[in-house]
Amino acid sequence: MKLLTIDEIISSILDETKGLDEDITDGMILKEEMILYSSLDKVKQLLKIEYLDQIFSDYILKYNWGNVGFLSYQFGNNDEIGLDWLINRNLEYSDYHILQKEGIIIIANGDPYTILLEYSSGKIYAFTSDMSYEEKIQIALDFEELVRAMGTGQYALWKNNEKEFTELMSSMVEEDGLVFWKDYVGLY
User: Fold this and answer.
1) What is the mean pLDDT of each run of 10 residues along the chain (188 residues)?
2) C-alpha 136: how far from chain center
């Protein structure tokens, strides 16, 4: 098994959801939709970010993340036209001042993990409410790898290939990161 490309992920979701009501599939299908660069400037200004990783920036401007999720992880909530979900999720977070100090922002919510981006390096981390920020675990090198891994994991779950998926991820992340990916596909 290898990580699926973004196009393969979109295709697999379309195949898997064929015939389902559009209201059900709306938040499952990643849609290419160019978001204005000024939206990114707004994110940086309001979250007081001087430099935002280029890979993350490119992906959030190319696709509409305002209502997309993989399995139990949601990248936005009812935000069809911009990046307000990203701004609000961070500014409304009670420990936002700690996130700022650590150089990270919340980019997705899930159960039991919250997904974080280290905005200068692009590294992706996960943590639970039981963990301190120092205990966060790295789960991907960058945002593209995260999305591809989440899409591949979702596909593996649909095809009952969870074990093969976690074997793939074991070659990509440290042991603590593997705990996240096993949990993601229900092997914990």
Assistant:
1) 92 83 67 80 94 92 76 77 83 92 93 94 95 92 96 94 96 94 89
2) 15
Alpha helices in the chain (DSSP H): 6-16, 22-25, 37-46, 54-62, 84-91, 96-102, 143-158, 162-170, 175-184
Structure tokens at 24: 């059900």
Residue 33: half-sphere exposure toward Cβ, Cα within 13 Å: 14
Q: Say what angle helices 143-158 and 6-16 make with each other, to 10 degrees.
A: 30
Per DSSP, what are the bridge partners of residue 137? Answer: 126
- In contact, 56 and 115? CB cutoff 8 Å: no
Under 8 Å CB-to-CB from 37, ≥6 apart: which residues? Answer: 61
Tokens of 178: 């593997």
Distance CA 126, CA 91 (A): 18
DSSP string across 69-122 = EETTEES-SS--SSSHHHHHHHHTSTTHHHHHHHTEEEEEE-SS-EEEEETTT-
- Predicted TM-score (pTM) of this structure: 0.91
Q: Residue 83's closest CA among 93, 72, 68, 97?
A: 68
60 DSSP β-pair partners: none
Whether 165 contacts 23, CB under 8 Å:
no
Other Cβ atoms closer than 10 A to 101? 10
